[in-house]
Amino acid sequence: MPAHILENAATLDAATFTDWGDVSKPIGEPVSHQSGLIFFQNDDKSSEMGVWQCTPGTWRCEVSKDEFFYVLAGRAVYTEDGGEVTNVTAGMTCAFPAGWKGDCTVAETIRKVYMVR
Predict the structure, then answer these.
(1) Which residue of 32, 63, 80, 110 pairs with 74 in a disulfide if CB–CB is 3.0 to 4.6 A?
(2) CATH fold of the domain at 19-116
(3) What burial letters (b/e) apply to 5-18, b meaning 16+ CB within 10 Å?
(4) SS3 at position 95
(5) Tens digits of per-residue pLDDT, 50-85?
(6) How sure is the predictor about 9, in pLDDT bands with cuts at 50, 70 and 90?
(7) What is the C-alpha separation between 101 and 89, in angstroms, rounded?
(8) CA proximity to 33, closest of 109, 116, 113
(9) Can you tell me the distance from the alpha carbon of 78 to that of 103, in angstroms, rounded to the nearest whole number?
């Protein structure tokens, strides 16, 4: 299997991204809108790597697969159902386990490189 290399994900023109639509469980206005670029997905779609971008807004977040990501730009707050708050900003590396549930508020359009499995 060949290596998959993506150079300068932080400076990719958003026009090259695929429109992924509005988030599925918005909470109030504005409604966040997503776009991205998948640069690897295995045959059974159980793991995937790419770049994701999302505009400001709040939504219900239920993580179905382990996710690891590095934030390239923007700012968001993840509030777990138990009350723990995680502030995410550019330059941070984060991991959310499958089963994590809470709300996500994007305060400034966020862009991240990610892997889910």
Answers:
(1) 110
(2) Jelly Rolls (2.60.120)
(3) eeeebeebeeeebe
(4) strand
(5) 999 999 999 999 999 999 999 999 999 999 999 999
(6) confident
(7) 20
(8) 109
(9) 6
Relative to beta strand 57-62, strand 48-54 is unpaired
Q: pTM for this structure?
A: 0.87
Phi-psi region of 24 (alpha: psi -120 to 50; beta: other; left: phi over 0): alpha
Give the helix/strand (H/E) hosting 67. Answer: strand 67-80
Partner residues linked to 36 by β-bridges: 18, 52
The tens digit of pLDDT for each residue in 15-51 reads 789 999 999 999 999 999 999 999 889 999 889 999 9
Planar angle of CA 108, 115, 18, nearest 5 degrees: 60
* pLDDT in the model for residue 16: 84
Residue 85, token pair as written in the block? 């708050």
3-state secondary structure of 5: coil
Q: Nearest to residue 52, comparing CAs of 12, 81, 24?
A: 12
Cβ neighbourhood burial of 73 (10 Å; 0-12, 13-18, 19+): middle
